[in-house]
Amino acid sequence: MTTIEAASDAAVQFIFVNGVALGNKNPRPLAPNDRIIFGFNSAYVFRHDKSTVKPSTDQPVTAEFAANEKMDLQDKSGAA
Questions:
Q1: Which pLDDT band holds residue 54 (cuts at 50, 70, 90)?
Q2: What gap in Å lies between CA 5 and CA 28, rounded to an integer?
């Protein structure tokens, strides 16, 4: 299983998976096609060679998609 975790307490607030901040330094499992944002400008999609989950062709995941997902969740929680 692949996981992601913050290297420091200060980094926790700047790492997002599928638009949600990590929240703590505990390892968080990653699933295929999870969107990961580091800081403000680095967006990635987690891929795994042996996964049977394939990227959707209906709505491709782009950096803009990941940033909008994060902003939408923050707006809904009132934590803009």
A1: low
A2: 6
Question: Residues 22-40: pLDDT tens digits?
Answer: 999 999 999 888 999 999 8
Contact 31, 55 (CB under 8 A): no
Tokens of 48: 């795994």
CA distance 34 to 17: 7
**Domain of 51?**
3-77
Instruction: Give the tokens for residue 3.
Output: 């996981």
**In the chain, how many domains are there?**
1
Cα 57 to the chain's mean position, in Å? 19
Quote the pTM value.
0.75
